[in-house]
User: Fold these one by one.
Assistant:
Number 1:
Amino acid sequence: MPAELEIASVSKSFGPVLALDDVGLSVRAGELLTILGPSGSGKTTLLRVIAGYETPDRGAVRLRGADITALPAARRNIGMVFQNYALFPHMTVGGNIAFPLQMRRRKRAEIAEIVEAALRLVDLAGYAARYPSQLSGGQQQRVALARAVVFEPLLLLLDEPFGALDRKLREAMQLEVRRLQRRLGITTLFITHDQEEALILSDRVAVMNRGRIEQVGAPTEIYHRPQSAFVADFVGESNIFRGHVAASAEGASVIVLDGGVMLDCAQAWQQGARVGAMIRPERLTPADVPGRNVLEGTIAEAAFIGTAWKCALRLGDGATVLVRLPTASATGLPASGARLAVRVPPESIHLFALE
Amino acid sequence: MSGAIAFHAPAATRRPGGLGAFLLILPALALFLALFAFPVLRLLSLGFADFSFAWYAKALTQPLYREVFALTFRIAAATTALCLLLGYPVAYWLATTTQRRRAIGFLFILLPFWTSVLVRTYAWMVLLGRNGVVNKILLGLGVIDHPLALIYDFTGVLIGMVHVLLPYMILPLYSALRRVDPSLVQAAEGLGASGFAVFRRVYLPLTASGIAAGSILVFVLALGFFITPALLGGGHVVMIAVLIQQEVGELLDWNFAAALSGLLLVLTLAIYALVQGAVERRQRGRP
């Protein structure tokens, strides 16, 4: 099946700044793909290229097989929710949602009906006559969403739409967007710098850094098997070490970290190669006895975060390891300066190539 | 440190509109009352001298004066319309171009402001006269075979007034256009709006207040305009200000001049109230 949206070798620079560096991405029909990256990574530029607000210097954008690279935004049939919602302040809620239908010269009676249905869809029935400034942030958000999908666009783009909302509302809106997207089956591109949001919402995540896409994959794949130090570091909490492969066999290897620590690892790798090793803090378990794959150090810092204790463990070679101990399993209260030994299960170590 | 404290301390104790602030405006107020309000009221009272409405009756009933008023309003309306038509694209360009080009644009718009109206009007006479630059070029090119009458008529007055009053239209339009959020324009485009639809559905309603402000300003200024119609009208196009000047300067009929001034003032205020009322009605119901 051909991709719904195909971005082929797209580059774009603003003066000396290369905002998009040979970006390629395929989006499947009906999926919700999140573009995740820090500010300045080029994700907003990519979205603006897809929407038609920027023309790429090189490369092509194809929607359902048709090249739309040079097509004006008005003729792309793409719905977009802007970061600040961009609701027309001089139109009512109903007027805002009717706007794209009026632009498509739909019949008046038909428009009224569709707008009514769209308002029900986002739980705002009866709000048609209000003005955007009379609504709360979450309600404005839902109006913007209704306006972006009411004309049945081929693609829905969301540009960090939840940035201005408080945490509770943000979580509610995330679920609502997901529910709406599933129900309409609309191919959706979602932009965020919030990795948690990306993991919760997406079918797939594309991680961007410095104008390039570092990795595309399902949330679990991105989280458990990052392919670069950047992805490992940006998505979730992690301990990242550098070292080399001392020995390797079928499905296993021995890694010697730069600090001298030797670790068994349940992943084969080319012998002698430089590797990055990532260990998630929650995969480390307290150890009673020293031995292989046990790290020992003193607790430099400890913080109680409800479900777990978060400790910074200083090893003998000066490296710091983040450890997350479930509140239930922790034997007593980890105190600053106390000795602690943790076991690193071989299957918890994820290796990736260093560039 | 003491500076910071001194800076903050009065803010806590100062009440808005206190007696101190009022005392500070007294000199300006006194000057205004003595040199402007008093003479104007004195002049206007001449229109009702001896409790007679004879001068107002004359101004309102004689067809000649009604025609002058009608012509004045027609010219003011045409000037306003032309300024709006010419000024909106300029204001749009200023609001959307780069910082550097905007600075240069403003320089060219404000440059005439710093030149005397008299000089500019004479410049138009040189350009548009029977033997003026425009006619000579057109004759030389063979486009016309006898000179066009470009001044001393409606057209000449209109050209001169639009030229002088255009900046008064551009500046309020510019500030209104600057306040339009660019993402609204992009949203409209993304939702399928053509260039014209973006203008009609987004720019126009969002800059309505600027259009009203600029139009009132230009219209009111045009109503009372004197130098340009006096020179470019050449006695053929008599606007109300020219007529008032004639009554005072040549016919020495101060009472009638006062009545004409009073009428102009009332009509100007009425139009201002009308437009302002329309703008407020438009905005009512919308927070």
Note: Chain A touches chain B through 28 residues (CB under 8 Å).
Number 2:
Amino acid sequence: MNDLKMGIFLFFLLAALCVGGVLGLILSRNQAHSALFLVLAFASLGGLFGLLDAPFIAAVQIIIYAGAIMVLFVFVIMMINLEQGIAPEKKRWTLGLAVALGVFLLVELALAVRGTVGALGSTGGESIGSPTELGRLLFTDYLYPFEITSVLIIAALVGAIVLVKRKEKE
Amino acid sequence: MIPIGYFFGLSIVLFVLGIIGFFVKRDLITMFMAVEVMLNAANLAFIALAKAAGSPAGQVIVFFIITVAAAEAAVGLAIILLVFRQKKSIKAEDMNLMRG
């Protein structure tokens, strides 16, 4: 019983941090602050993955998302270095429309999953997603996607370098 | 223990917040961050359903999504940097080359 309370408490704490981080990202006008709020959201998502019995993905989430990808974002923000944040939208109706559309989508998604959410069961029980098991799956059932991913990464690497490199003559 | 439906609901909320952020923000970098939020909402749904199904296959998919997101971030940020060099601006409404 105590364990249950602890789990629910952790869930709501991490969920609040995550939603708060994303709200901070939306409401903040400073891009660097937005990036830091996003790091908070991603790190708490890593905690949620841990609650869902995915310790390896949780570690990957924190190292790659909250670490590497966000460093890339912060680096680009530093290179662009706007003097001040971009002023908020002057036309209020676009903001209202965006929020209205978002609420509409929320209701629609909630209606779509309404019947299934209760049937999903709860966490606990036998453990899945140990690094051993994930590694075995990656090199057996998902061998082709795994190998193709390496091509994708090479393509992205070369693409990013070619795009950003300045020409020699200039 | 914690009902998995909670995680699923959180994933829906995060996805909607990502969409709202994408429409509300006006600079390309923050819009790009909102896209990352949507990707992460999908990741959370995948992991929740993997737990519900008792199979680690969903976690493998998340592994691939994170890889693709890293590649996407590298190329996307390179494009944003190029746009900034050419236009000296990263406001979305300044990207109007295709307007004829």
Note: Helices of chain A lie at 2-27, 31-51, 55-80, 92-117, 131-139, 143-164.
